[in-house]
């Protein structure tokens, strides 16, 4: 797969959590988003130099490669996945044991282009101006959605790219559930299906509880709605209405919202259909846009 030069995105904006994760000090969901204080990324990056668990985004910085180096010499994909998960756990990225289990089961190494350092905590280009999100973002989103990824539940992965997270969802909801990926680049859909076939989610794909489709994810995927869990892997200027409509009462949507400054928002639909919205953290993702716009760069 050709690697086009692209901005490497889909990571948590580096920061000292206590300085910028305002969800811990401000009742975000009661404030209009524009009133939220913002901290420039350059400032955050500077401060994150002192934080060994803080990912440094685009540059393959030596602090980032701390996770990769000890495991690049020996051991198979499973050993490397385990080591990667251990590091994420030490950094407090996730809390549920289910997240550790699924990230060890689905080998990230099967979902990246050849020669890509799969277990490094950084987004990586996958061609077509897209990326595979950083492991810490996958772990964080799985953790946020854990209660809505129980066996038998329905999950939608919008902007499914490599298929990695869709495969994780499928393993979590099991053969009685439904995991659907929707991606607007046909070549990525074909490739993601090949990746899944090599992984431990292959049998779920074969039996039909896991599927990946070409389409505009802003419209969701009504065929398998309503969903207990919806994840969006690209940043939307605003929350697409179709995704809210396709969310089950009791369901949760996790979506990066914004253009340059982006928030990872967590939207819960209550049983009466009303919504609660909060911001989990600041992030940088590629845009949720039209295929033409994305390919134009
Ligand atoms: C940051 S990548 C994440 C991919 C995936 N979560 C992963 O880690 O492999 C965002 C993905 O969203 C896709 N995308 C962007 N806009 C889209 C849209 N309107 N409909 C469907 N997919 C879209 C891109 O092609 C890209 O594959």
Automatic annotation (TrEMBL):
Please name the PROSITE patterns in this protein's record: PCMT
Decide whether keyword Glycoprotein is in the record: no
* Reaction(s) catalysed by this chain's protein: [protein]-L-isoaspartate + S-adenosyl-L-methionine = [protein]-L-isoaspartate alpha-methyl ester + S-adenosyl-L-homocysteine
Q: Which UniProt keywords apply?
A: Methyltransferase, S-adenosyl-L-methionine, Transferase
* Superkingdom per UniProt: Eukaryota
From which residue to which does any coiled coil extend? none
Q: Which SUPFAM superfamilies does the record cross-reference, listed alphabetically?
A: S-adenosyl-L-methionine-dependent methyltransferases
InterPro entries this protein is in? PCMT, SAM-dependent_MTases_sf
What is an example of a Pfam family matching this protein? PCMT
Q: Which CDD domains match?
A: AdoMet_MTases (cd02440)
The EC number on file is 2.1.1.77
Q: Which PANTHER family match?
A: PROTEIN-L-ISOASPARTATE O-METHYLTRANSFERASE, PROTEIN-L-ISOASPARTATE O-METHYLTRANSFERASE 1
Q: Which family does it belong to?
A: Belongs to the methyltransferase superfamily. L-isoaspartyl/D-aspartyl protein methyltransferase family.
What is this protein called in UniProt?
Protein-L-isoaspartate O-methyltransferase
Instruction: Quote the gene name from the UniProt entry.
Output: LOC110794577
């Amino acid at each position: 797969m050709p690697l086009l030069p692209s901005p490497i995105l889909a990571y948590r904006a580096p920061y000292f959590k206590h300085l910028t994760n305002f969800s811990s000090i401000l009742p975000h969901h009661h404030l209009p988003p524009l009133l939220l204080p913002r901290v420039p990324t350059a400032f955050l990056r500077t401060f994150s130099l002192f934080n060994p668990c803080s990912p440094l985004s685009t540059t393959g910085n030596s602090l980032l490669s701390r996770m990769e180096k000890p495991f690049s010499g020996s051991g198979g994909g499973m050993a490397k996945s385990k080591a990667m998960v251990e590091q994420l756990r030490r950094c407090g990225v996730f809390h549920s044991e289910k997240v550790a289990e699924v990230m060890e089961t689905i080998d990230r190494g099967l979902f990246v282009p050849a020669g890509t350092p799969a277990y490094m905590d950084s987004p990586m280009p996958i061609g077509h101006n897209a990326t595979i999100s950083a492991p810490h973002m996958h772990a964080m989103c799985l953790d946020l959605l854990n209660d809505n990824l129980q066996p038998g539940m329905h999950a939608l992965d919008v902007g499914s790219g490599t298929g990695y997270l869709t495969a994780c969802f499928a393993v979590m909801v099991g053969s009685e559930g439904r995991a659907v990926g929707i991606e607007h680049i046909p070549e990525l859909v074909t490739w993601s299906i090949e990746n899944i076939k090599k992984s431990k989610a292959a049998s779920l794909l074969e039996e039909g509880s896991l599927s990946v489709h070409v389409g505009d994810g802003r419209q969701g995927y009504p065929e398998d709605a309503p969903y207990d869990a919806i994840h969006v892997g690209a940043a939307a200027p605003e929350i697409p209405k179709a995704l809210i409509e396709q969310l089950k009462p009791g369901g949760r949507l996790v979506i990066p919202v914004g253009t340059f400054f982006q928030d990872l928002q967590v939207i819960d639909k209550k049983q009466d259909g009303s919504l609660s919205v909060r911001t989990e953290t600041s992030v940088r993702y590629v845009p949720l846009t039209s295929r033409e716009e994305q390919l134009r760069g």
